[in-house]
Write a structure and sequence with these properties.
The chain is of the alpha+beta class and about 270 residues long. The chain has six helices and twelve strands. It has helices at about 1-30, 70-75, 125-135, 175-180, 220-225, 240-265, and strands at about 60-65, 80, 95-100, 100-105, 110, 115-120, 145-150, 155-160, 165, 190-200, 205-210, 230-235. Strands 9-8-12-10-11 form a five-stranded mixed beta sheet, covered by helices on one side.
């Protein structure tokens, strides 16, 4: 009779330990995995990402070029510097080469050859292109103006593997690209409490992000990064083991107590 009781007790303890281990594993995975609440399906349809035109802001670098049928007439409008190379014997001078882009100053303006200083903050590249085309049309026949952003910087700080400021490709600007540039998050990062600091188009905000929650995938305002966004990832109070050690120790203590009681009863 005593042997049967002891066997049942052992069975109960095994089941209890398995359940406790399962609870700990589930707790850890919920803290570590992205988008835990996505349905268990091989295909999850998401809404299309709304394409928004980027607005020019201070610190942006713009690549602006002019072209027309008369190359001599268009040359003064393009930003140029003298080549650093020494002219070849017999040559009149070094051929000018295109300089770096135009950096938007703290007042939201750029200064261009011939055109002079103009405010561009708050405009899109398309709007600036149309405005410049109108401005040079009296001087150039059939002008072609190209305006492109040559920078898209984001900063990732805190509990990431490689914090810093990164330049992202203009066509890959989601929060995934920003985190990947910083080497992704280690286990010690709080995926459920990431802060996004945004200063864009005259609005400043701090947005809390939960990377465990699928709703982020449906919020294009947050999922899509903006120029000069700053992500700050907080550190968990301890590693996975340290955070779950208290619960695990309690379970082990309880199991030991039950085993001790069982042995006492059996004897």
């Amino acid at each position: 009779m005593k042997r049967i009781t002891f066997s049942r007790l052992h069975l109960q303890m095994i089941v209890f330990v398995c359940l406790a281990t399962s609870v700990i594993s589930c707790t850890s995975s919920k803290k570590l995995n992205y988008f835990n609440d996505l349905p268990d399906s091989t295909y999850v349809k998401l809404p299309p990402v709304v394409e928004e035109e980027r607005v020019i802001g201070k610190g942006d670098v713009l690549d602006i070029s002019f072209s027309a049928k008369d190359q001599d007439a268009v040359t003064p409008f393009n930003k140029q510097t003298s080549a650093a190379m020494t002219p070849a014997p017999g040559a009149k001078g070094a051929t000018p080469i295109p300089a770096q882009g135009y950096t938007v100053d703290p007042l939201g303006a750029i200064e261009m050859p011939v055109i002079g200083k103009m405010e561009v903050k708050g405009m899109t590249s398309r709007q600036l292109k149309n405005r410049l085309t109108t401005m040079v049309s009296p001087y150039l026949k059939d002008p072609i103006v190209e305006v492109k952003f040559s920078s898209f910087n984001v900063t990732v700080l805190g509990e990431v593997r490689a914090p810093g400021t990164f330049s992202l490709p203009s066509n890959r600007t989601t929060i995934f690209e920003a985190l990947a540039a910083a080497g992704d998050l280690p286990h010690s990062a709080k995926k459920y409490n990431v802060k996004l600091y945004r200063d864009y188009n005259g609005e400043r905000a701090v947005i809390k992000i939960d990377l465990n929650d699928k709703s982020l995938l449906y919020n294009h305002q947050v999922f899509q990064m903006r120029p000069n966004d700053v992500l700050y990832v907080q550190t968990r109070k301890g590693s996975i083991f340290k955070e779950d050690f208290g619960l695990f120790a309690s379970i082990v203590t309880l199991v030991v107590s039950i085993v001790t009681l069982g042995l006492t009863i059996s004897n």
